[in-house]
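Usage example:
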Amino acid sequence: MTFKKKLIEHLLSLILITSLLGTFLYFTIENKNIQNTQKNERIEPYLGLSFIDFDNPFDRALLLDVLNTYKPGQQSAHESLIKTIEQYRKTNLIEGMEEAYRKEQLSSKKWQQLSMMYAKFILIYIFVMILTYYGVQTFGILRFIRKQQNRKSHLLSFFQQLVTKPKYKRFKDYLNYYLQTILHLLKSIVIALAYFILFAPAYVIAYSLKTQLNTNTIFFMIILAVISNGLLITYTNKFYTFLVTESRKGYVQTAIVKNLNMSYKRTQKSAINYASIFNVRKHFPMHVFQHIYINARYQYLQTIKEQASFLISGLIIIEMALNIQGHFSYELLKQLLYKNYDIVTVIILGIFYIVKLTEIFTDWLTYKESIKYENVEPVGAK
Amino acid sequence: MRNVLLKIKQYSIYIYSQKDKFWLIVWLGILAITFIWNILFLNKPALRLIIDGFLNTLYISILVVIFSFILGWIIGLVVVRFESSPFQLPYFLLTFVLNLIRSIPQIVGILIGYIGITYLITANIVNNAWLIMTTMALVISLFIFNEVIDLIRERINHFKKLDFYNAMKVCGISENRIINFDILWKNSRIHILNKLIAIFGSAIFLQCTIDFIVSVGLSTQVSAVSLPTTLGSLLAKIDSKQDILAIGNTLMNPSYFSHIFFEHLQGVTVAFLIVFTLLSVYKISNGFSERNRL
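Running the assembly step on the lines above writes:
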């Protein structure tokens, strides 16, 4: 599917969802208004009489007399009307007190609040997206290079060194040997802990740190969104799989036969060093890995849509589960509970727009890359 | 004795080389150890709750896998059929709807689904715990099954490009048989199984998360509807939360570490079961694809 077709599909879904939710929003607001007016229709004209104090029994009796005089023969109906007014005022007062903080309307003040929350949500989303984009590629490359270097796991090395009986002459060598063994154990513990953190749902990490840190800050949210919920590890694994698949392809074998550098030993002069791995613009000159990386990155670009949806889910989880008040997703949960469906609709629409815009951006990015590598004709070219 | 030890060593090496089986054993082994530890040190009612929560979570997640598989397979085949038909409108409409579902963040979709479930419960339409859990599984699978569809479409399209597809058609074999039996069953079942393992992990994560959010999302409000106990809802209980807070306390006060496994066992066990299961499923899925070179 060309970019143009994809763009049309995205725009169509944007229009469709906006009109669907817009219609729903219209009917929800209308329904709210109708309910309010229906409730008051019978008693509304009397409630507006400013000269009558309904708290005063004399005023109530006066109103009853007036009604009986003007509309004779309906005494019981008038008595029931006065009772209804009393009842309404009582319930209204209690409900008003109870629901003053619950029932909210889409007023201009609410729009303003929602816009601020939305802007904050987008800002956090962009930061997390950039950080995960970098993290996924960096850790994916690190894992791939470790695999190419045939490095054993630290736990396995620990057990092997523990079982093997070394034969050294000097005590210092023995000490070095066992220190290395302990180091392997420590490293494996650190890795296991890191795995636990990477797979832990955000609320588990946040609650375990709640007594030590202020978990409601934006900075903490960004860090949590990057490392928790399995986001980073899942997409790192995906990127790693792309690297492995690419490395098995024929062009890599051809490049190796043609004597392109294929050594994964990490030295200062080698193309595969920490500086190139951790660099934002990753570049491995004259090394076969450069081509593996470029092709894997191209495939990874196509999964960003999926990653964006996962990331947004993660952010929503963090805000909802940690009760971070004043944030967009917490507001969604709150309004769902208070049944303010007009506000819920607006929030869902906002989230949908972010996902769709990310999808359009990703498709555009993939299309740009396709032009470079697959000789796809640019839009509008004849 | 020496022979037995040697055999154990050889078997261990064999199992270690097959990472999926290795991690399955590790997962089950650690679960068993955790269970024994809890029998020894956790009070009976809390233990009962944890067992119920864990089994309910597993039940829902397995159902999510089954529903996603069935929905994904059927709708995947329908999409493929529409794709090759000369009349493209149904194909366009179906993919449009599927893409729309994809654009809704899973957690939002499931949360809205849960509102439907609470309505069904309060209206007394669904009142049996098993039926509630099945409905929960169905809601979750609605936002996951797209992954199975993608895989099925990718596999069918890949094989359609090869000669054997046309050769079989020329031999008079029906297209249904080629797709369902030769492509999907004979040549793709490992891929599908790998996807289902990953879906199992996602289902556990989503289900625990949504239950946690529903139970704890608004601390000032108590949910009027009681949903079946799961690991997520157990973690949201106040005593579990206090247990989790104790982990943080250990960071500043390391001497408290030993208390965690005795005095804060309920919350720590629930959190551990969630995280360790997610980690193990990830490792099993990775090992499986590595062993089968997927």
